[in-house]
């Protein structure tokens, strides 16, 4: 699996270059996730979308870099690297922690007069809906148990102690970022929002997903799917269809 870095940038990966696409899709991974999680999405939506997958520091080829354990710090960094590629309409798609991060990136873009075409928030409660969770303070074994419960990491990774030692610092850091995030009151977005969630997800209820509607003055859609926190693994075609419909709203 190969990827082009956008202008050599470590943050953004382009697996299927689509220079003539009318819309850019920016994908933001879950806690402990990497840009490669969105390879199938990129493959399906190219060349209609120029798909950019964000690679956080502290994992894969960035594993020697300092992890960022703050949503605000991540949002500032991601916004900075996205500004040069906002020359065409942008759709933000974030899963789990990535959804919260996408929201904060959208806020920062809108402050600069750039309104994303849409924000798709997957597997995450609305920013204003807080839960007291402390996974990032647990032992390594307890974090591994949490990951297994959510079924978000491939079994071969969970069974490989060397790989686990490599990824656990990034997972812990990401969980800290997600769990210490606190919504700061502010004007709602103009960006249309779609909330996507699995009906058996222990991390987000229907009401918590529906509360995303409070964060936009634009259109809102709520989409539910069979499955848990990583419903996306099995329901990707339906989510990709929703993204494609957003892109279809942009003329040639």
Automatic annotation (TrEMBL):
- BP-aspect Gene Ontology terms: lipid biosynthetic process
The keyword DNA-binding belongs to this UniProt entry's keyword annotation: no
User: Keyword set for this entry?
Assistant: Hydrolase
Limits of the Thioesterase TesA-like domain: 26-247
Classify the source by domain of life. Answer: Bacteria
Q: Which Pfam families does the UniProt record give? A: Thioesterase
One example GO MF annotation:
hydrolase activity
Question: Which ranges of the sequence are coiled-coil?
Answer: none
The entry sums up its family as follows: Belongs to the thioesterase family.
The molecule here is called Oleoyl-ACP hydrolase
Q: Which organism is it from?
A: Streptomyces cyaneogriseus subsp. noncyanogenus
